[in-house]
Amino acid sequence: MASRGGPRAAGTDGSDFQHRERVASHYQMSVSLKSEIKKLIYTHVGIWLLLLAQMCVGHLKLLPHDQVAMPYQWEYPYLLSILPSLLGLLSFPRNNISYLVLSMISTGLFSMAPLIYGAMEMFPMAQQLYRHGKAYRFIFGFSAVSVMYLVVVVAAQVHGWQLYYSKKLLDSWFTSTQEKKKK
């Protein structure tokens, strides 16, 4: 190799170190998956804030009930869905596997379960709207059941992708842990 100011070793241009500067694929995957999960968490926080605002407006009677309906029963337990997202964010700085696993389990309990219950709770009203064209609850002139079904569909996709990426991230972290144990 070359010294600071001296000649280079014969047969090298100094670029033969490039192969050693690649980042291992599971580290690259970890960074990209963390980024995707953060985006999904921020989207979830937006949905959560909209539901919280609807609940506050409905309960505090800031607007008439013909503009913003009272919340459905599934919305109350869904407010706990912020906890899994916070656990997910807390797991990122030190690649904490236990926080990520807790986040995934609690996402199923506090996020997906209320959404499934909500879809079942609102089904009779959606059926009545579809068959008879009658809606009794409104959110700014739109049928509340239609708006809330849209929220349920979007939130279910957000949480589903969040679980999928969390599982892939967990696998990436296990790969990293296994390689460290081999050394």
From TrEMBL:
Q: What is this protein called?
A: Protein jagunal homolog 1
Keyword Cytoplasm found = no
In this entry, which stretches build a coiled coil? none
The protein's superkingdom reads Eukaryota
Record's keyword annotation contains Transmembrane helix = yes
> Pfam families under this entry?
Jagunal
Tell me which Gene Ontology terms the entry assigns under biological process: endoplasmic reticulum organization; granulocyte colony-stimulating factor signaling pathway; vesicle-mediated transport
- Gene behind the chain: Jagn1
Q: What family, per the record?
A: Belongs to the jagunal family.
In the bilayer, the protein is annotated as: Multi-pass membrane protein
Q: Where are the transmembrane segments?
A: 40-62, 99-118, 138-158
The species this protein belongs to is Himantopus himantopus (Black-winged stilt)
As for subcellular location, the record says:
Endoplasmic reticulum membrane
- Name the UniProt key words of this record, in alphabetical order: Endoplasmic reticulum, Membrane, Transmembrane, Transmembrane helix
Q: Name one GO cellular component term.
A: endoplasmic reticulum membrane
